Amino acid sequence: xxxxxxxxxxxxxxxxxxxxxxxxxxxxxxxxxxxxxxxxxxxxxxxxxxxxxxxxxxxxxxxxxxxxxxxxxxx
Length: 75
Description:
Layout: E1 6-9, E2 15-18, E3 25-26, H1 29-40, E4 45-46, E5 53-54, H2 57-68
Antiparallel strand pairs: 1-2, 2-3, 4-5
């Protein structure tokens, strides 16, 4: 999805990127990119063990631990 962003400036002059689909905004381009996945439904981060897909890499890593941890499980 191409992001037609509204880029504003806050009171201190820093750039604020506005989501074109909802009120979410962020100073960081990467956070807005990750947020946009909630609208597109894209899940670009697959678990290397089971293939389950996640929107955020950190969530995939936390999930992947369930495959190698003696206490973990994947359902």
